[in-house]
Specification:
The protein is α+β, with helices and mostly antiparallel strands. It is built from six helices and 13 strands. The strands form three sheets. Strands 6, 8, 9, 10, 11 and 12 form a six-stranded mixed sheet that branches. Strand 8 and strand 9 form a beta hairpin.
Length: 331
């Protein structure tokens, strides 16, 4: 219908194919306030329509609307088809990557064994084989990173898969030692130490995906720690009466108070880390995993500046993973 607006103009509302449309800021005879409009000198020349003329305009516009809808639906249909094809290609590619990556790992293992045998047979010293072993280690690190990235992708696509596998016993110290080997090149390059204060006997009965939690947190700690300052990433464990806590402490840029929950949202990145590469997915996955495993992830950051490096302030940053004590064994 046609209505008079508070600003003196007219509005016309109509429906077409379950969609509602409104035209505003027009002048329709019998539905305007001339006294209000008289004060708006710049609009005096605007055409005044009759109700019949508005109906005729509506019918002409419906033809245009139908044309645009048909075109849009055609483009959307084509886009959906292209997206499905892209998704299919991506799934196939990822499906092929896993066995290829497994073959890379197996090849590295065989080459390491072969070099060891060769070293014994030919009585070679370390200098003869160090270069080959270093390169193999680099390949192994890259392969492990690919595996972790694939696991992250699986959770993003299907979070339910987190608890579909059987529970396993995870020896925390050994897992951290594996992570050290994965990140060893980056730790040495940036002169960062990973201090593992976890007891050898500590284990957790949980799902395999738990391994991604320390992976993400340590990877972030390496990324945001100031390079070449001999800083530490420290991992400690504390068992309490009803719960146990695994703490990861490092130094990083300021996380504002209003961001301390947002950083667990998908694709969100703190304002002070925009200069670093990243997707904003890692901590979101940590929150998804901890929620699925009846655990909690908490963030505490110091209010005071711990040190300044290259005109940038750094603060002690602690991520804590809290889980029920019955899951923990210390023998």
């Amino acid at each position: 219908g046609i209505f008079k607006c508070p600003k003196g103009f007219s509005s016309y509302c109509f429906a077409y194919e379950n969609q509602k449309y409104i035209w505003t800021g027009i002048k329709i005879l019998g539905y305007i306030d001339r006294k209000i409009l008289a004060k708006r000198d710049s609009l005096q020349g605007n055409k005044t329509f009759t109700a019949d003329e508005i109906i005729q305009l509506r019918d002409k516009n419906i033809i245009i609307i139908q044309f645009l809808n048909d075109r849009l639906n055609g483009e959307l249909s084509q886009s959906r088809s292209e997206i499905k094809n892209d998704q299919k290609l991506t799934r196939n590619a990822f499906h092929e990557i896993r066995p290829l990556n497994a073959e890379i790992k197996a090849s590295v293992h065989r080459l390491n064994a072969y070099i060891g045998d060769l070293k014994t047979k030919l009585k070679l010293d370390g200098h003869d084989t160090d270069f080959m072993l270093t390169q193999l280690n680099n390949i192994s690190q890259s392969s492990e990173l690919i595996s972790c990235r694939m696991d992250q992708r699986d959770i993003l696509i299907d979070p339910i898969s987190i608890t579909q596998k059987s529970r396993v016993t995870i020896h925390v110290r050994k897992e951290l030692e594996k992570l050290y080997n994965i990140f060893k090149t980056y730790l040495k390059k940036d002169k960062i130490s990973l201090i593992n204060e976890i007891d050898n006997k500590l284990s957790i009965n949980t799902y395999p995906v738990f391994r991604l939690i320390p992976f993400v947190i340590i990877e972030n700690a390496i990324k945001y720690s100031p390079a070449n300052t001999d800083q530490d990433i420290k991992v400690v464990f504390k068992k309490e009466k009803d719960s146990s806590v695994l703490k990861f402490s490092s130094w990083g840029p300021k996380i504002n108070d209003d961001e301390k929950e947002k950083i667990f949202n998908p694709f969100y990145r703190s304002k002070n880390v925009q200069e670093y590469e990243g997707s904003g997915i890692g901590l979101y996955l940590v929150r998804v995993i901890t929620n699925s495993l009846d655990m909690q992830v908490n963030l505490i950051q110091s209010d005071k500046i711990d040190f300044n490096f290259n005109n940038k302030d750094y603060y002690e940053t602690i991520f804590s993973i809290v889980f029920p004590s019955p899951l923990v064994k210390s023998q």
